[in-house]
Structures are given as structure tokens and as C-alpha cells.
């Protein structure tokens, strides 16, 4: 294969300094492999914890929010242009729950992005078993839809959640509740809210979501039993939970559904804002570390090319004296930087993949904050990360090679040859 003169000169210079070239390529390789590994680790853990949050959190929750009176309400009584000021505002007296929840569900269900939608009745309750009491919440749900949205079956430790629809006054409790109240499947528990009559309910199952706070407070019943606990009629619904085909569209869809229904909506990003903030901070830290690694590799390439120019200064002068333009000289040294970057990139991709794969098979068998277990380190093998790594590595090497190349292009052949 025939190369141009500039390319042949660049390859000759590189091959003449094999040790230095290899060290520079290894620097790029290390930066790229660490970039791939850290991005794989970051995306893998992010995806894992997002999936964990979806065990109990819908993509969108629609609910009736308690409203506080504000100055805008005065405009309906005083329509002049004066400024209205409301002192000591109070909460508005309004109907609890969502008005016409099933009509809203039918409207939202028409959206092609919606995969599952289900109503829920949330009741703050006190669990009583013997002399022990525990505060918590009962979620009245359609357990079949709940299973489709959150894969309840995978969380079951004992019992059958379908019994919520088969057995009257039945309840599905979290593992934390069962442990604190010493309950087993088939036991009875007294559940009372602040508005309805206490109800003796039978434990038909025990689940573990992996989130400690939920497992220690939350239980499930069917919707009718939750309404009875609160002393409400059959139209009473506190929440509507919605899942989408693509959960990344949840923030935009939440705004649409809020306008459509007239009620407050909360998407999963808003509900897990602390988790998303932690993801961003961690991404900044990891990317900063990788950036420093590639910066160090870039300085290595810069030093090598600078040394090459210093050693080959007379040859460069001769090249320019024989007709090589400044652009040709820049091309020679930039090609050296690119070749070093390509060698480092090729090796770095393989090493980065190998490290990521090795860590994905590393058994840790530990617990995670909030509860649950994590047997293996979650890693992601996302192809765009490999493309980004190569581009990032090549840009670093080109930037490092440009300044020495520009310096070489300005060599005055007359001055160098004379002396």
C-alpha cells in the first residue's frame, strides 16, 4: 500500500522512537479504558437504581393537591386593576379525592404513550396486633394492574396477592410490618384510620419491595376495602397511577395530563429528584477524573512531539528548504498524534470492555441503602460510550499534537542550517 510522503515521514519518526510512542499510546489507552469503565459503571448503576425506584413509583402520579388561598382568588370578586394582598392565607375547603376519576382514566387511556393506568385509594392507618401498634398506609389498588405496573409477583415472599380479590377484608403487608408485628400469612390484624371504623383484616401475603421504608409502613388491599376504611363511597379515589412506553417522556406527559384533568401531576423524575441530583454529581466527578487522565496522556504526547521536533530540527529545516510547506510539516506531526491516538483507542476499547465485563461478574452479595440486595455490580455495555471514548481520546491527542506541529511549521530553514 502506497502512502503519501507526509505519511511515510510521520511513520518513520514514530518507528524511530518506539519506546516513547508506546508509552504515549498506553497513556491514551489508559484514559480511554477508564472512560469506558466509569461510564459503564455509572450507567449500569443509574439504570439499576432507576429500575428499583419503578418497583414502587409509577412514571406519573395524578392526585388532588391541597390548595392554599392566594390573591388571584380576589380577582373574581374585585375586578379592578388594584393590587390584591391576602394576609394569613388558609387552605381552601374542597372535596377530598379526585372528581370523576374513572372519566379521567378513560380520557388518559386514549393516549398511545400510556401502557398502564390504575386508580388508587391511599389511607393513613394504624396497624394493631395484640398490644403493639404501628403507623403506616394502606393502598387500595386493582392488584392485577398493580402487578402489571410493578411486577408484584417478583416481590412476594409468601402468600398469593390474587387473594386480595378473593377474600373479604384481606391485606397484603410489607416484610417490615410483618417482622415488627410478628405476623404470618393467615394471621389477623386490626387496621384503623382516622375517619372510618376499625377493621379486622386477614394477612394473605407478605412482600418485600427492596425499599426498607416502604416495607415497614405500606400494605395493600383492594379498592373497596380501602374506601370502607376511610368511610368513603365507591367513587372515592385519591391517586391515579400511569406508566408510559418510554419513561423518559414522563415530565412532558405529566404536564399534558395536568392540563387535561385539572389536577396535580408528579412524574418519576420529580419524585426521585434527590436520586437524579446524586446521579448528576457522580457523573461530574467521574468525568472529571477521566478528563484529568486524558489530559495527562495529552501532555505526554505533547512532550514526545516536542522532543521529536527538537531532535529533528535540522531535518525539518531541510524539508522546508526542499519545498515542504508549513501545512505539510503540520500534517506530518499531526499524523503522528493521530496514529498514537488510534493505537491507544484500539487497545483502550478492548481493555475497557474487558474491565467492565470482569466487574459485571464480580459477586458482592451486599445490601443497598434503603434495603434490598445487590449480588453483582451492575454494568452497562452501551455502544455510544465506546464511540464517545474514541472521539474524546482522538480529540485530546490532536489538540496535544497541534501546538508542536505548529511550532515545527514555523522553523526558519536558513537560520537552522546556518547554525
Description:
The mean pLDDT is 81. 53% of the residues lie in helices and 19% in strands. The chain has 15 helices and twelve strands. The chain has 419 residues and is of the alpha+beta class. A hairpin with a 5-residue loop joins strand 6 and strand 7. The radius of gyration is 33 Å and the shape is elongated. Helix 1 (5-16) packs across helix 13. The strands form two sheets. The protein has a six-stranded mixed β-barrel, surrounded by four helices. Strands 11-12 form a two-stranded antiparallel sheet.
- Number of contiguous helices: 15
Relative strand content:
15-25%
Spatial sequence of strands, sheet with the most strands:
2-3-8-5-7-6
What gross morphology would you assign?
elongated
Give the secondary structure arrangement, pairings included.
Layout: H1 5-16, H2 18-53, E1 60-63, H3 101-109, E2 114-129, E3 132-141, H4 143-150, H5 152-155, E4 156-159, E5 170-174, H6 175-181, E6 188-193, E7 199-207, H7 212-215, E8 218-222, H8 223-230, E9 239-244, H9 250-261, E10 264-267, H10 268-271, H11 273-311, H12 313-321, H13 326-360, E11 363-367, E12 373-376, H14 383-409, H15 413-418
Parallel strand pairs: 3-8, 5-7
Antiparallel strand pairs: 1-9, 1-10, 2-3, 2-6, 2-9, 4-7, 5-8, 6-7, 11-12
Amino acid at each position: 500500500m502506497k502512502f503519501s510522503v507526509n505519511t511515510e515521514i510521520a511513520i518513520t519518526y514514530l518507528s524511530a522512537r518506539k519506546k516513547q510512542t508506546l508509552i504515549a499510546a498506553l497513556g491514551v489507552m489508559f484514559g480511554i479504558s477508564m472512560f469506558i469503565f466509569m461510564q459503564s459503571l455509572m450507567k449500569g448503576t443509574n439504570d439499576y437504581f432507576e429500575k428499583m425506584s419503578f418497583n414502587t413509583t409509577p412514571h406519573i402520579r395524578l392526585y388532588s393537591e391541597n390548595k392554599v388561598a392566594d390573591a388571584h382568588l380576589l380577582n373574581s370578586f374585585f375586578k379592578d386593576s388594584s393590587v390584591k394582598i391576602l394576609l394569613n392565607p388558609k387552605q381552601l375547603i374542597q372535596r377530598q379525592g379526585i372528581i370523576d376519576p374513572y372519566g379521567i382514566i378513560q380520557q388518559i387511556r386514549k393516549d398511545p404513550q400510556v401502557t398502564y393506568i390504575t386508580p388508587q385509594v391511599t389511607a393513613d392507618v394504624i396497624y394493631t396486633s395484640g398490644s403493639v401498634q404501628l403507623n403506616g398506609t394502606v393502598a387500595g389498588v386493582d392488584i392485577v394492574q398493580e402487578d402489571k405496573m410493578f411486577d408484584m409477583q417478583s416481590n412476594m415472599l409468601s402468600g398469593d396477592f390474587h387473594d386480595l380479590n378473593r377474600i373479604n377484608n384481606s391485606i397484603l403487608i410489607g416484610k417490615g410490618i410483618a417482622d415488627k408485628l410478628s405476623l404470618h400469612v393467615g394471621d389477623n390484624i386490626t387496621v384503623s384510620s382516622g375517619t372510618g371504623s376499625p377493621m379486622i383484616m386477614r394477612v394473605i401475603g407478605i412482600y418485600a419491595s427492596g425499599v426498607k421504608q416502604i416495607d415497614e409502613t405500606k400494605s395493600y388491599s383492594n379498592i373497596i376495602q380501602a374506601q370502607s376504611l376511610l368511610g368513603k363511597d365507591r367513587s372515592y379515589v385519591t391517586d391515579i397511577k400511569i406508566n408510559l412506553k418510554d419513561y423518559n417522556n414522563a415530565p412532558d406527559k405529566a404536564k399534558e395530563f395536568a392540563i387535561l384533568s385539572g389536577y396535580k401531576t408528579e412524574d418519576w423524575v420529580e419524585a426521585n429528584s434527590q436520586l437524579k441530583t446524586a446521579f448528576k454529581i457522580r457523573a461530574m466527578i467521574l468525568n472529571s477524573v477521566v478528563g484529568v487522565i486524558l489530559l495527562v496522556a495529552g501532555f505526554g504526547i505533547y512532550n514526545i512531539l516536542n522532543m521529536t521536533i527538537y531532535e529533528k530540527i535540522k531535518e525539518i529545516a531541510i524539508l522546508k528548504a526542499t519545498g515542504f510547506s508549513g501545512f505539510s510539516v503540520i500534517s506530518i506531526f499531526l499524523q503522528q498524534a493521530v496514529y498514537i491516538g488510534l493505537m491507544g483507542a484500539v487497545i483502550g476499547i478492548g481493555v475497557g470492555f474487558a474491565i467492565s465485563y470482569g466487574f459485571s461478574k464480580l459477586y458482592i452479595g451486599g445490601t443497598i441503602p434503603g434495603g434490598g440486595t445487590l449480588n453483582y455490580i451492575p454494568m452497562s455495555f452501551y455502544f455510544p460510550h465506546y464511540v464517545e471514548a474514541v472521539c474524546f481520546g482522538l480529540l485530546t491527542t490532536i489538540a496535544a499534537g497541534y501546538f508542536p506541529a505548529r511550532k515545527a511549521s514555523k522553523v526558519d530553514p536558513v537560520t537552522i542550517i546556518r547554525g
